[in-house]
Amino acid sequence: MKFFSQKNILITGTSSGIGLEIVKLLLDFPCKIICVDIAPMPANIISQEKVSFIQTDLSQKENLDLLFEKLASEFGQIDVFIANAGFAYYEKLQEPDWGHLEKIFALNVFSPIYSLLKMQKSNSEVVFCITASAMAKMGLAGYSLYSATKAALDRFAEAFRLENPRFRLVLVYPIATRTHFFENAGKAPLYFPSQEASRVAFRILKGIAKGKRKIYPSFLFRMSYFWGFLQENLNYFYQKYTQKIFRERFR
What we know:
Keywords: Oxidoreductase. Belongs to the short-chain dehydrogenases/reductases (SDR) family. GO terms for molecular function: oxidoreductase activity, acting on NAD(P)H, oxygen as acceptor. The chain is of the alpha/beta class. It has helices at residues 17-26, 43-46, 61-74, 98-122, 144-163, 181-184, 197-209, 219-224, 226-249, and strands at residues 8-12, 32-37, 51-55, 80-83, 127-131, 168-172, 176-178, 194-196, 214-215. The strands form two sheets. A seven-stranded parallel β-sheet has the order 3-2-1-4-5-6-9, with helices on both faces. A two-stranded parallel ribbon has the order 7-8. The model has no long low-confidence stretch (mean pLDDT 93).
């Protein structure tokens, strides 16, 4: 994957799971890796000369603004931005708790969209990749809020691509991944089927290098969602109609 050579690559959510596995794979390439997470990273990773680590809470706007100031002053142009940070609740949703809702939407939805718009303004040639989820396409019991955040990203990306066809926005749709992610969600069960984080990370990098805009690490999920893909293809014609009107309105 020579695509990543001599590039500045930023990944969020790198302390464990998919994000950490992406970093490990990128260590084999001559590139600069900028890791961002609220939690500390393994010392043997951040001690590498090509790795820089920024510890911050990405759910807060002021922290994102400071992050982008730091990126501009210390690293210059970011070529690939992988917005992987996120978390889930596994719960029976009952209580009307505004803070509970705001917390998950701030990190899972607002943060990557805000970062995308900041990147678009500074470098329209960037490859911007967001880790969504198979739950963007299919809600699962216990994950009503998490599913909602990932579905929001999916609909956003679909419309944003129509509005900005030259901007390279990539979404990834992993199935359940064998990491601590689901344990942290609230002792959540690991649904069948599942994949290793290293496998998902490899598919993400391979998809980016190949120019994909949608990456499905699980072939089984891709096949099981056949009718959904058919519907998406049927939607294409109406979406092109709205794109034509949009271009006339916002010339």
